[in-house]
Design a protein that fits this description.
- Helix 2 (18-42) crosses helix 3.
- The protein is elongated.
- The protein has helices spanning 2-8, 18-42, 45-52, 56-62, 66-91, 97-112, 115-128, 132-153, 162-178, 190-209.
- The protein is 77% helix and 0% strand.
- It is mainly alpha-helical and 211 residues long.
- The longest helix is centred in the middle third of the chain and has 26 residues, at 66-91.
- The chain is built from ten helices and no strands.
Length: 211
């Protein structure tokens, strides 16, 4: 927890203690819940302060504005993804890179079908179409995802050059993120979810290996 929150607070040098990081984490969790339930319009510093049981001034000590809080929340989400990717890599050191790639893609699919994550991503996507700040945040997140996928697929087929693999990484991320539109229910409609995941794997395998 501490490393991901510390990353989100990278510009706040005064927050160095575990207690401070714990409070920052509580704020981000409350903001995540509010954003998922109420949308950007319902996300306010005062509402988050009330939900986390802190004063408004204490919340502003960690995040000076609503945009700063939104940025930290998205950075936190990205760092959680990175942490999970690192865990997959560490747990699959003896597995093939292709298996690591599929496990990472499965993780992304699981995450975007989580109800809270799904709601947050939809809200930020919608906001990005009319808000330059949100658009820049989304661009940053997408760039990190593309870079991560590129590293996993690069060189799987020596006949495919790096430039081509970069383009394919863009397509892969777009396909995975685009599945949010289908509102897949991995718990309530498990068979449907698994069938879609199997189809996605076939497409990703082709993009990763076929010249």
């Amino acid at each position: 927890m501490s490393s991901t929150v510390a990353s989100a607070l990278k510009n706040k040098a005064s927050v160095t203690t575990e207690k401070g990081l714990g409070r920052a984490h509580d704020i981000l969790r409350a903001a995540r819940t509010v954003l998922a339930a109420e949308g950007y319009a319902g996300l306010s510093m005062r509402r988050v302060a009330a939900d986390v049981g802190m004063s408004l001034s204490n919340v502003q000590h960690y995040y000076q504005s609503k945009d700063a809080l939104l940025e930290a929340l998205l950075l936190y989400t990205m760092d959680l993804f990175q942490s999970k990717m690192d865990s997959i890599s560490a747990a699959m050191t003896s597995a093939s890179r292709l298996d690591q790639f599929f496990s990472t893609c499965d993780m992304f699919l699981d995450e975007i079908t989580d109800p809270v994550t799904h709601a947050i991503f939809f809200e930020i996507w919608a906001l990005a179409s009319r808000n330059a700040f949100a658009s820049n945040l989304m661009d940053t997140m997408m760039a990190r995802e593309r870079k991560a996928i590129f590293k996993l697929i690069r060189g799987l087929n020596p006949a495919i050059g790096d430039d081509e693999y970069r383009q394919r990484a863009i397509l892969m991320v777009a396909q995975i993120e685009g599945l949010m539109l289908f509102r897949l229910d991995k718990a309530g409609r498990r068979a449907e979810f698994l069938a879609v995941r199997a189809s996605v794997r076939k497409v990703l395998l082709a993009l990763a290996t076929v010249p």
